[in-house]
Design brief:
The chain is an alpha/beta fold. It has three domains: 124 residues, no CATH class; 299 residues, TIM Barrel, CATH 3.20.20.80; 79 residues. It has an eight-stranded parallel sheet, with helices on one face. Strand 5, helix 11 and strand 6 form a beta-alpha-beta unit. Helix 1 runs antiparallel to helix 5 and helix 4 runs antiparallel to helix 5. It is elongated, with a radius of gyration of 26 Å.
Amino acid sequence: MSTLVQLLRGLKERSGQSYADLSRRTYISTSTLHRYCTGRGKIPDAGLVTRIARACGATEQEVRDVVRAWTLDGELSPATDAGAARVTELAPAEEDRAAVATMTAAAPPVVEPVRRSVMGVVAKAVAVSLTVALGTVSSQASPEAAPEPAPAAAAPQSVSGPSWVVAPEPVESARFGVTMNANTGEMPGFRVGAVRFWDSQTRWANLEPRQGEYDWTVADRLVSAAGRAGLPALFVIGGTPAWAAPGASRMAYPEGARAAAPDDLDHWERFVRTLAGRYRGRMEGYELWPVGNDSRFYTGDVASLVELTRRASRAIKETDPEAIVVCPGMGRLWSDEGRDFLREFAVAGGYTHCDVASVKLHQRSPADPPETMLAIIDIVYRTLHQAGAHPPIWSTGTTHDIVLERPLDEERAIDHAVRFYLTGLYGSGSGYLRRTYFYAWGARTLPIVLQAEGGAPTRAALAVERLQRWLARAQVHACGQGAAIRLPANVWQCEFTLTGADGRTRNAVLRWTHAGTASTPAPADAAQVHRLDGTSTPLTPGDLLDVGTRPVLVTGP
């Protein structure tokens, strides 16, 4: 009998619980749990060992002893019994379970990784299915046990993501963008890397309220403020004036902007050329419509949007050749209709006229883990690839209905704000997602508020700032999740090389979970763990590092 089995059996007997009791607490079928505790089945990951031990009432030292025994018991290997045919993860806390319950099997599938796995994913681990399930794993019954039926569970959310490795790439500050939801010219009171102008009274209808008469007051103020702050600015062009499309549907804005292209595209091209000429050399780029596949923003067809894009791109490139042209934003990507429009725009050659594709990456619900956005990143990548289009992708916003969602509590807001940007970084494994803009700066009525205009940065904003400081001189070279990197299945990790002000380099990893907690082995060269509240503690290789939904940074010596 191995040391691991002795420890597990001892904990189980001491707890006084039956296998059925423990099954309900660990979300493992009774027969599978029986095999694990009798040595007849191989436990596939350390998170599962931790879960069983804690359900038995183990102390933290006993948990560490069990995990060390599991490590010594043998490397992760393909299971010989049907009960370990899939890798399970730590059960989320009850409050986290509520957060992920809204995502169901109806979510778009996550496809195969587009890059090779971190550390090559050793051959033995490849044999294990990487499907992640927040719930019960079914198995065949053991003839030695008299299994009781496992409790029924609601359909769980599936969260998964590819693992990838690349040559070290700089983490550019512009990855940390915000959309400006204010017109005062004030810039964020915390560190950001780029700004985007929309919902800031800079729509076409604001700037040219009457044909040929321009009001640049707000736009000049914002562009000048961004320049003084050294922030690259993205100007969103949209919101046709009533005079240019009098019969079109109105947008939900007080100046009467229309949700359609102008009746005469010459008016559109003339405005774009005038705008680009005014801010030549001062504007990093132009997004050619806020959302092209949502009738609340655009009611035209795909062919008209492609032509609008072509003419605007030509006007910008002729006027300011260095400016980046960003194609019309595509949202509603959790719906078939939204994805179909994206596909048709790509097939029609819309992306041949742009330098960058714009998509709206967001969870189905703000309470869902930010990592669920990876499913949308995957769909966008595949759709563009199938159409033969390969532009870089920027995440430029959210859903129109975001203002109707309930605010997150302060602690979850911190977690989700930081992981919004980390999910964007993780999604760069496709090779295309290069930037993310948080929606929005200045607003007060959103699920996550970073800073209301006139107020101080929230704790969520300060956590985002600390993340950026951690990565200010970082190069990312790997990201992975769960069994692919030999960690519990709810654990995510990105690996970096950090360069200090003195030019000295050291290794670092960011580690977090999408739900629940996990005990993980410290990296081989770990020296210190840093937290978003500014605290840090020493860490020794071989120690167990408890991680949760708030990311931590582990640095080497």
